[in-house]
Amino acid sequence: MTRVVIKTENMSFAYPDGTPALQNINMEILEGERAAIIGSNGAGKSTLFSHFNGILRPTSGLIKIDGEPASYKKDDLIKIRQKVGMVFQNPDDQLFSPTVEEDVAFGPMNLGLPDEEVEKRVEESLEAVGMMGSERKAPHHLSGGQKKRVAIAGILAMKPDIMVLDEPTTGLDPHGVEQVMDILYDLNLKKNMSIIISSHDVEMVTEFATKIFVLHGGEIIHQGTPEDIFNDPKTIKRAQLKQPTAAALLHRLKTNGMSVGVKLTVEEAYHEILHGMGEDAYHNLLHMVKDQCHHKLLHALGEEKYHQMLHILEEEKKNKSS
Ligand SMILES: Nc1ncnc2c1ncn2[C@@H]1O[C@H](COP(=O)(O)OP(=O)(O)O)[C@@H](O)[C@H]1O
Ligand SMILES: [Mg+2]
């Protein structure tokens, strides 16, 4: 059976000033899963993420990491943070060493690993994020996308089982988004790493996530596959989010009588629309053949060929609808 790596049970949290930021959160993340928490600003995403590696402690309820209720003793917290690697939304909160190399080495050095092992991990991590050659650069001289990748490398160097990334693509240009998402796919597919991201970018999340949680006002108001989530426009609206553009377009075409299903990505929508158009064109042709061009076709083809053609069209129609 697939291992549950993170599980929360009726987890609630209020900030010291009394702000109730999370209410009765029940969620399960499985090993190797790509999960996304989606929600608008202030929904509680960052607060929830701070619970995944013990930065914040639930006011009530609990969180289990690998089946063990989180313990907030110093030594236990170190273990949790090794297991659950957290990439903050703003890389400037994470990068503080004078060079990229020192930054990525910081975590493994703190674990007391031998120099050789630290060096190996720095090299491997920078390679995994495509930042070799920047070892001696100052992090604050890098672009937003590069900083993000170095921050990811710093976490990878700790060899976590689970990576948690708070809004990993916010503020990046399309190329930067693609690079970061490619790294996350790679870690998930090649190393079976469980990955949890938060975002309000429904397009990206639709492509990436195998499981989505909709967070609104500190509560999880829906969870399921991307199809489950985005075929429920009411909940999406309540969460102050949007449907992916492809889904909204197909929904509209469907409402206006075109025979299409609602798909979430541009690629799927493209095929759905082509198929829908093909079907419409076919039915138009059939209609025309039977009603309008009857005499012309009979004359041009002769009676036998004309009936053969009608027969083929009918058979095709049957095959398509079966
Ligand atoms: N340090 C804090 N003290 C008090 N309230 C906070 C603090 N940080 C966040 N909040 C409040 O908690 C709620 C959730 O915030 P946050 O987790 O940052 O949401 P998100 O990451 O989804 O934008 C908001 O109402 C926010 O104002
Ligand atoms: Mg946030």
Into how many domains do the coordinates divide? 2
CATH architecture of the largest domain: 3-Layer(aba) Sandwich
Strand pairing plus helix content: what structural class? Answer: alpha/beta
Distance between the termini: 37 Å
Give the helix level as a range of percent.
Answer: 40-55%
Mean pLDDT: 91
- CATH H-tier superfamily of the largest domain: P-loop containing nucleotide triphosphate hydrolases
Description of the structure:
- The chain is built from 13 helices and ten strands.
- By secondary structure, it is an alpha/beta fold.
- Helix 3 runs parallel beside helix 5 and helix 4 (115-128) crosses helix 5 (144-156).
- It is elongated and about 90 Å long.
- The relative contact order is 0.11.
- Bound molecules: adenosine-5'-diphosphate (ADP) and magnesium ion.
- The site of magnesium ion has 4 residues, from helix 1.
- It is found in: Cell membrane.
- Its main location: membrane.
- This is ABC transporter ATP-binding protein.
- Part of an ABC transporter complex. Responsible for energy coupling to the transport system. Probably part of an ABC transporter complex. Responsible for energy coupling to the transport system.
